[in-house]
Amino acid sequence: DVVMTQSPLSLPVTLGQPASISCRSSQSLVYSDGNTYLNWFQQRPGQSPRRLIYKVSNRDSGVPDRFSGSGSGTDFTLKISRVEAEDVGVYYCMQGTHWPPTFGGGTKVEIK
Amino acid sequence: EVQLVESGGGLIQPGGSLRLSCAASGFTVSSNYMSWVRQAPGKGLEWVSVIYSGGSTYYADSVKGRFTISRDNSKNTLYLQMNSLRAEDTAVYYCAREDGAHWGQGTLVTVSS
Predict the structure, then answer these.
(1) A41/B101 touch (CB, cutoff 8 Å), yes or no
(2) What is the tens place of the pLDDT at every residue in A17-69?
(3) Sign (positive/negative) of CA torsion B32, B92, A48, A50?
(4) Of A37, A54, A103, which is closest to B44 when you measure between CB atoms?
(5) Half-sphere exposure at residue A85, Cβ-oriented, CA atoms within 13 angstroms
(6) Which residues numbered 23-82 in B keep a CB inside 8 Å of some CB on A?
(7) A16, A90, B14, B76: which sits with the fewest CB atoms below 10 Å from its CB?
């Protein structure tokens, strides 16, 4: 299985400051169709996961533009330009290129 | 509006069986690929199974031979039949549309004597 490694595990951030989460895969996530199936999810406390970003850098409908995704191959990043209180939660990357889909271990974002 | 509502979870003894349901609205289950994803208490997310629009099914090694994913097109509902349950199957089970575009609220399965 493809191993997804996220860092850091915990990310204390000051309100209004930027935040960045790294996700690395054990294999390239470029699929034979040329797409890279790397998604980012947010899970607020007590809630179901919510997809924020699909195929590396495409924001889902309703996701604030302070969230952005980038990367290629095996190295990916989720950035929050200015953290707000509602951004507290755990963030997961997920690859859908290789079966089975696998998630990173999660990064907990909290307010300092 | 897309909605997914899971049901069927509960407390079950090791070796027992349970069937989870996921009622969908706002889209057609059979036209999408649908998945079950689980989350053990305090842990991360694990993909359990998927059923594609053509009917092909896939399972994580941890549940292969014990779990069966299916759907009822007339009810627009996804199912997960879980047999030979083990303590390590204890988790919140979510159904998800496509590669996580939409998720249900989850249903808790607790396997314990």
Answers:
(1) no
(2) 999 999 999 999 999 999 999 999 999 999 999 999 999 999 999 999 999 99
(3) negative
(4) A103
(5) 0
(6) 35, 37, 44-47, 50, 58, 60-61
(7) A16
